[in-house]
Amino acid sequence: MYIYISNQTCFRYRLQVRALDTTGFVSLLLWDREARFLIGKSANELKEVLLENTRAIDEYSYPVVLNNILQRKIVFKVIVKSSNIRLHAEVNSVVKFTDEEQLIEKYDQAAHSDAFTDPDFNTNQRLDGEKECEVANFNTYGQDI
After folding, report:
1. Is residue 122 within 8 Å of residue 116, measured between CB atoms?
2. What is the DSSP letter of 65?
3. Class of the CATH-defined domain 2-110
4. Counting C-beta atoms within 10 Å of the first and last residue's C-beta, which end of the chain has fewer, N or C?
5. Domain map of the chain by residue range?
6. How far apart are CA 102 and CA 22, in angstroms?
7. What is the widest separation between alpha-carbon atoms in the chain?
C-alpha cells in the first residue's frame, strides 16, 4: 500500500470492498484515487490520524473514517477481464463510479428487471476483457480514465 519517494513513504490505497444490491454482491478493487474520493482522506492523512489517535503504529487498528463508505449508494462501472472469468476470480477493478442520485435511481429501477436495456449501460464491451469498456456518455467521477 505504499511507494517510496525520495526517502519518504507515500501511502496509497488498494481497497477491496463488497458492493451489494437486490441481485447479489460483488467484490470490487478500488485504487488510490477512487478510495481517496470515497473516504475523504488520502492514505497519508489517514495514517497520520491513526498515529495521533493510537500514539503507535498498530497494524490491526481500524480507522473509523472508513465508515464513510458504508451504506452508500453508488453505481460502479467495472472491468471484467477474461482471466476473471477463466480463473473464477471474484474481484473486479473499478473503472469509474458515481453517486449521482439521478443515475442511482435509473439503475436501481433496472435492477428489478431481468435485463438491462439502457444504452448507457450496454456500451460496446469487448470480449477479450483485457481492454477497458468504452466509456459511457454520462458525467461521473473517473471520466478521464
Report:
1. yes
2. G
3. mainly beta
4. N
5. 2-110
6. 19
7. 54
